[in-house]
Amino acid sequence: MPRTPVTVTVTGAAGQIGYALLFRIASGQLLGPDTPVRLKLLEITPALKAAEGTAMEIDDCAFPLLTGIDISDDPNVAFDGANVALLVGARPRTKGMERGDLLEANGGIFKPQGRAINDHAADDIKVLVVGNPANTNALIARAAAPDVPAERFTAMTRLDHNRALTQLSKKTGAPLSDITRLTIWGNHSATQYPDIFHAEIAGKNAAEVVNDETWLAEEFIPTVAKRGAAVIEVRGASSAASAANAAIDHVHTWVNGTPEGDWTSMAVPSDGSYGVPEGLISSFPVTTEDGAYEIVQGLELNAFSRTRIDASVAELAEEREAVRGLGLL
Ligand code: NAD
Ligand code: LMR
């Protein structure tokens, strides 16, 4: 018996992440090889034609799991019946734009999208915000969706998590599959804190295996935290395929569960854990099972970690104050 298709809405479908993401969703990599998918694409009106071009190419792949593609410039249509929503489209910072301008411009996108999710999405909706500033955009969307359980709104730090895994693997020579329990804390920004103090390499404490505080503070953390800017510098455009890959990983893990003994990093609404003010959408170590996640509890944080987590969380609190001041919450 074929399963009922899962409706996946993707915003910013004509953008570069969209192009790297949609084919993978349609091929079954987001939800698994047994789950049929219906795609709903949201774009702004001038980009609808480009989205149609991408949809033509998706059709031409003849993906057996894909049951259809709809394209719209109306959030109320695009989120209708959505089970999974990937909010990728966002307003990039342009020349002369202040931080407040950026937050305001994105408020104009994520507030109506949050409302449309509230009014039209399926009861089991899961939302991943990729568009930057991802954590605060997720906060805006969540605030506009009071009827949706807050925990369904998440933001992406899985790309940071994957970047940190690779840096740690390169430093130690350990295969990626041996590394577990790495954590990204805080904001998807340069203040984020990639934490190896609880990570393990083949069961041994990663910080002890590395045993190099200078590398940790002066190479590992800045390399991971500033990797997005470094890719822009070298590639001439922001990360696209790696961001799409992380979005697939995030939702796949949320739906299918974390492996026994391991966890992942997701930015989720804080319940006050680890002193992060309630409601801020901050990255934590999380385990997932049966489509739900839980923040890992009881980790002891040393002073080095505490200072860095506090700095990133303070930035999130400032962003929340800024969007509150703009009437977006
Ligand atoms: P892009 O400019 O190539 O594409 C963005 C698309 O969004 C465009 O096609 C645009 O028309 C569309 N869009 C704009 N406003 C929209 C709206 N209101 N509704 C629907 N679509 C809308 O950008 P990209 O490279 O695909 O990146 C998208 C976002 O992802 C950016 O904000 C980028 O900074 C962010 N990003 C986040 C991470 C992360 O780890 N969280 C990583 C990489 C990129
Ligand atoms: C990334 O981490 O690659 C992006 O968030 C960078 C960006 O500014 O788009």
TrEMBL record:
<feature type="active site" description="Proton acceptor">
    <location>
        <position position="188"/>
    </location>
</feature>
<feature type="binding site">
    <location>
        <position position="113"/>
    </location>
    <ligand>
        <name>NAD(+)</name>
    </ligand>
</feature>
<dbReference type="Pfam" id="PF02866">
    <property type="entry name" value="Ldh_1_C"/>
</dbReference>
<keyword id="KW-0560">Oxidoreductase</keyword>
<feature type="binding site">
    <location>
        <position position="99"/>
    </location>
    <ligand>
        <name>substrate</name>
    </ligand>
</feature>
<feature type="binding site">
    <location>
        <begin position="12"/>
        <end position="18"/>
    </location>
    <ligand>
        <name>NAD(+)</name>
    </ligand>
</feature>
<feature type="binding site">
    <location>
        <position position="132"/>
    </location>
    <ligand>
        <name>substrate</name>
    </ligand>
</feature>
<dbReference type="InterPro" id="IPR001252">
    <property type="entry name" value="Malate_DH_AS"/>
</dbReference>
<comment type="similarity">
    <text>Belongs to the LDH/MDH superfamily. MDH type 2 family.</text>
</comment>
<keyword id="KW-0520">NAD</keyword>
<feature type="domain" description="Lactate/malate dehydrogenase C-terminal">
    <location>
        <begin position="157"/>
        <end position="321"/>
    </location>
</feature>
<dbReference type="InterPro" id="IPR036291">
    <property type="entry name" value="NAD(P)-bd_dom_sf"/>
</dbReference>
<feature type="domain" description="Lactate/malate dehydrogenase N-terminal">
    <location>
        <begin position="7"/>
        <end position="146"/>
    </location>
</feature>
<dbReference type="GO" id="GO:0030060">
    <property type="term" value="F:L-malate dehydrogenase (NAD+) activity"/>
</dbReference>
<dbReference type="Pfam" id="PF00056">
    <property type="entry name" value="Ldh_1_N"/>
</dbReference>
<feature type="binding site">
    <location>
        <position position="106"/>
    </location>
    <ligand>
        <name>NAD(+)</name>
    </ligand>
</feature>
<dbReference type="InterPro" id="IPR001236">
    <property type="entry name" value="Lactate/malate_DH_N"/>
</dbReference>
<dbReference type="InterPro" id="IPR022383">
    <property type="entry name" value="Lactate/malate_DH_C"/>
</dbReference>
<protein>
    <recommendedName>
        <fullName>Malate dehydrogenase</fullName>
        <ecNumber>1.1.1.37</ecNumber>
    </recommendedName>
</protein>
<comment type="function">
    <text>Catalyzes the reversible oxidation of malate to oxaloacetate.</text>
</comment>
<feature type="binding site">
    <location>
        <position position="163"/>
    </location>
    <ligand>
        <name>substrate</name>
    </ligand>
</feature>
<keyword id="KW-0816">Tricarboxylic acid cycle</keyword>
<dbReference type="InterPro" id="IPR001557">
    <property type="entry name" value="L-lactate/malate_DH"/>
</dbReference>
<feature type="binding site">
    <location>
        <begin position="130"/>
        <end position="132"/>
    </location>
    <ligand>
        <name>NAD(+)</name>
    </ligand>
</feature>
<feature type="binding site">
    <location>
        <position position="93"/>
    </location>
    <ligand>
        <name>substrate</name>
    </ligand>
</feature>
<dbReference type="InterPro" id="IPR015955">
    <property type="entry name" value="Lactate_DH/Glyco_Ohase_4_C"/>
</dbReference>
<dbReference type="InterPro" id="IPR010945">
    <property type="entry name" value="Malate_DH_type2"/>
</dbReference>
